[in-house]
Design a protein that fits this description.
The chain has 545 residues and is an alpha/beta fold. Helices cover 49% and strands 13% of the residues. Strands 1-10-9-8-7-6-5-2 form an eight-stranded parallel beta sheet. The radius of gyration is 26 Å and the shape is globular. The chain starts with 16 loop residues before the first strand and ends in a 10-residue tail after the last helix.
């Protein structure tokens, strides 16, 4: 198994950052996508301009999902306005030598020139996994049906796709690539108990000849049920989609396998503002930099419509945040481990030690104390951790936080983000209190109005604080009815410019919608996720279609 991209390995003294693929490079030349795909000189020129302005550590030529299926006989539709796609499945299947396939020859020439132009960089050999290629060759739905109807035909097709993938990988390595990057997005649709038979085993056989080199495996979507099988392929680094919470799965990845990911390439890198990109990237690095095997990347390929400025801002923010945190990683790791294990006294001692070593209080809070609780909440969401353990982590968090609180606040000047309260007629508070705790841990400024709170009290507090979010809790059926009245009064009388979220034992998603709420969360952990989505600033101006 190759150890991928660890700090100091392969001549790299720094933590690595890169966006997947290089589709935005098409914006650097006056040509359409189809023209670029069929012209090695034009393709290289686009990539050269792109990477000269983007200090990424792993460089890709921009690849498309159909190239291997095209070589095996599928008919492809090309367009200057978008990526190529399968027009019709292969009528007869062949496994040609890559040197006899025009577009594979073009890519090899591009790789060779990239190696010369960007000497010392990681140059990727991007190939698609056998299951995904098989789906492009015969049709994705047809292949999935064949898993039940014709296993033997599937296995024969996968063997052919594996042969071409291995040959194409070697072809690109011979041209100068030095990283094997395999994407197998269609394999995410295989039932988890069949993943190894139809994908994992073939991926392992694809990686085996190249295990002296860094290797990457990326599968789109929620791969939570097959993470262990992805590691079992022997890959050097597992690349996660942006839908995955890395904190929930980091313990399943051995220290000699890289955890790669996973900023949203569309919602953040393509469509987000520079502030969104900086915030999300810094937050991810703040959580994951404690893992020496973490590599910052995007959760999938960045779309070709993304601006170079946005992509560059992602890379630069990530690199800067790594640099800021690196000296404090040993202290932060100890603090996080103590809080996660609910060892309050050790957490306090760790905070004291970090302060003595000059670690900034805010860094201790975010990457030490808060990281542990966020990991616990991620595991809770994945049903791998339960509320008693989470509450003990919160206790340990607050023991450490008390040492830092006076160093963090500046006279209460912070703007209130959230008002919380249990509605009139209801005196249950544990759910509401947990929501407050988790909001505070995640950095939101909260005003807690307590229990038995009337519409008038909510409106009065709103007029005073002008929050972006109002949270209502209801435990009983009667209080649910009161919640509906309060929401109506907030909307009609208050003319509030805030979103209303609800939760509590008396509610579910459909009930929340009927009450007119903007969102529903069944517990404190998911309330934070809901708030993050609702409170994220929207980019002004027209959005890409």
């Amino acid at each position: 198994m190759a150890r991928l991209f660890i700090n100091g390995e392969a001549g790299f003294p720094r933590r690595l950052v890169y966006p997947i693929n290089a589709l935005p490079s098409v914006r650097t030349v006056e040509a359409g996508i189809q023209e670029i795909l069929w012209d090695a000189d034009l393709k290289f020129e686009a990539l050269k301009r792109y990477y000269q302005n983007l200090d990424a550590d792993v460089l890709f030529y921009f690849s498309d999902i159909v190239i291997q299926a095209e070589a095996m006989g599928a008919e492809i539709a090309f367009s200057n306005g978008g990526m190529p796609a399968v027009k019709s499945p292969a009528r007869s299947i062949e496994v040609p030598k890559p040197g006899h396939v025009v577009r594979m020859q073009i890519n090899a020439r591009v790789v060779s020139r990239m190696q010369q132009e960007f000497s010392g960089k990681f140059i990727a050999a991007p190939v698609f996994g056998p299951f995904t290629v098989a789906g492009q060759v015969v049709g994705e739905e047809a292949l999935l049906r064949m898993l039940i109807d014709d296993r033997a035909a599937v296995m024969d097709l996968l063997e052919q796709a594996l042969e071409l993938a291995g040959n194409y990988t070697q072809f690109l390595l011979d041209a100068g690539a030095n990283v094997v990057s395999v994407a197998d997005p269609l394999s995410a649709l295989i039932p988890p108990d069949q993943f190894w038979e139809y994908a994992g085993d073939f991926l392992q056989r694809l990686f085996d000849p190249f295990n002296a080199l860094p290797t990457i495996l990326h599968i789109c979507g929620d791969t939570g049920q097959v993470v262990d099988q992805m590691v079992k392929t022997g890959v050097g680094g597992v690349s996660f989609d942006n839908c995955m919470d890395l904190l929930a799965f980091e313990d399943q990845i051995p220290d000699d396998v890289s955890i790669i990911g996973n900023i949203d390439p569309v919602g953040i890198v393509e469509r987000g503002s520079l502030e969104d990109i900086a915030s999300e990237t810094a937050d991810l690095v703040s959580m994951m930099a404690l893992k020496k095997n973490f590599v910052l990347s995007t959760g999938c390929a960045v779309p070709f419509s993304a601006s170079l400025e946005n992509v560059r801002h992602f890379v630069e923010t990530g690199r800067r945040r790594f640099s800021e945190l690196e000296p404090a990683v040993p202290q932060l790791s100890a603090i996080s481990a103590h809080v996660f294990s609910a060892k309050a006294e050790e957490a306090v001692n760790g905070v004291k030690s970090a302060l003595e070593r000059g670690v900034e209080p805010l860094v201790i809070v975010t990457s030490g104390l808060t990281r542990a609780v966020r990991k616990g909440s991620a595991l809770y969401e994945a049903k791998k951790c339960f509320l008693p353990s989470l509450l003990l982590m919160v206790d340990a968090f607050y023991e450490g936080f008390r040492l830092l609180e006076d160093r963090l606040h500046n006279g209460g000047a912070e703007k209130t983000d959230v008002i919380l309260g249990t509605v009139k007629g209801d005196i249950h508070e544990i759910g509401k209190n947990l929501v407050r705790i988790f909001f505070e841990i995640y950095g939101y400024q909260v005003v807690d109005l307590g229990v038995d709170v009337s519409a008038e009290a909510f409106l009065e507090s709103y007029s005073e604080h002008r929050p972006k979010l109002i949270g209502l809790s209801a435990f009983t059926t009667k209080s649910k009815e009161e919640m509906g009245k309060i929401i109506n009064e907030l909307r009609q009388k208050g003319k509030i410019d805030a979103q209303v979220i609800v939760g509590g034992a008396a509610l579910n998603e459909s009930a929340a919608q009927l009450l007119g709420a903007d969102g529903y969360a069944p517990d404190a952990v998911r309330a934070v996720g809901l708030a993050k989505g609702l409170l994220r600033p929207k980019k002004s101006g027209p959005q890409p279609s």
